[in-house]
Prior knowledge:
- The complex is a heterodimer of chains A (146) and B (208).
- Chain A has 146 residues and is α+β, with helices and mostly antiparallel strands.
- Helix content of chain A is 47%, strand content 23%.
- The longest helix of chain A is centred in the C-terminal third of the chain and has 25 residues, at 109-133.
- Chain A is globular, with a radius of gyration of 16 Å.
- Chain B is α/β, with parallel strands linked by helices and 208 residues long.
- Helices cover 35% and strands 28% of the residues of chain B.
- In chain B, strands 1, 2, 3, 4, 5, 6, 7 and 8 form an eight-stranded mixed β-sheet that branches.
- The longest helix of chain B is centred in the last third of the chain and has 27 residues, at 181-207.
- Chain B is globular, with a radius of gyration of 17 Å.
- Chain A binds chain B through residues 1-7, 9-10, 33-39, 49, 51-52, 55-56, 58-59, 62-63, 66, 134, 136-137, 140-146, and chain B through 1-7, 12, 14, 42-43, 45, 47, 56-57, 59, 61, 73, 75, 77, 87-88, 91-92, 94-97, 128-129, 132-136, 168, 191, 194-195, 198-199, 202-203, 206-207.
- Strand 1 of chain A pairs parallel with strand 1 of chain B, so a sheet runs across the interface.
Amino acid sequence: xxxxxxxxxxxxxxxxxxxxxxxxxxxxxxxxxxxxxxxxxxxxxxxxxxxxxxxxxxxxxxxxxxxxxxxxxxxxxxxxxxxxxxxxxxxxxxxxxxxxxxxxxxxxxxxxxxxxxxxxxxxxxxxxxxxxxxxxxxxxxxxxxx
Amino acid sequence: xxxxxxxxxxxxxxxxxxxxxxxxxxxxxxxxxxxxxxxxxxxxxxxxxxxxxxxxxxxxxxxxxxxxxxxxxxxxxxxxxxxxxxxxxxxxxxxxxxxxxxxxxxxxxxxxxxxxxxxxxxxxxxxxxxxxxxxxxxxxxxxxxxxxxxxxxxxxxxxxxxxxxxxxxxxxxxxxxxxxxxxxxxxxxxxxxxxxxxxxxxxxxxxx
Lengths: 146, 208
């Protein structure tokens, strides 16, 4: 599957990310795909290596999914890492996308989860419709051109 | 799976360095990282064990300039080469746009090269990708050992073992000293970008 995002798509996606950031007091929210590509980011991410964070997050999620399978679960749909001041919350949005929320002690995990749960289904449907629209291109698959 | 961002006029592609354990995948990335300018590269991330073996992957992001007005960013990954890390190799291959297969020229590694290439074909096939159509380049690494005590295979034998059916571009290299490293990267980037630009044209047509 190829991921193709137009300005219009990004506007739709950012609407949801803005909602999460503004109502939960999180620093920032990233949307990445399961292969580690950054799709969108919203909020403040000063001095953070976003590309490495995306690659590691996808790997982290993938590795955890394998752990889930070993335990007889299909997948763990959320992950949370707590630091002294900075925290990261990961949640699966549909089949292909992971939402990464970065936040500090000004807010709480409960509020973050609540706000994400409120938009997760609708965001997931929006992403599915974006991916479906580009399906004809996805079906072409990679070809070698010499 | 390239990610084409029409909002930022940016394309992100994923290139994976594949091959048997100790063939020099990480060394390729380390050489690239050391040589590239600060403005074109990101940080290099490595998840390895204390014994210098890659545990999960190495990751390096590079900016390759512009094509058709789009900024092209490639993300280079390596996989762990050891046989028992197949699950992590599969994870890293997710969404791959191009592969560099690094072959170890040492004679004792001959069988492991072949096994690793078969493993690559199998893991790609599981993702619905054919090794015959994915942008692919083969690198014959450790050619600097030629003439030393370590016995290495001639390029012709490696070519026969690994490339007689695929017939993809191949390069002799020494990842440690740098010979052939950028030639390999240039070729795989060229193949991937060609593949992606074909897709951009299709998307452009579709969006019009």
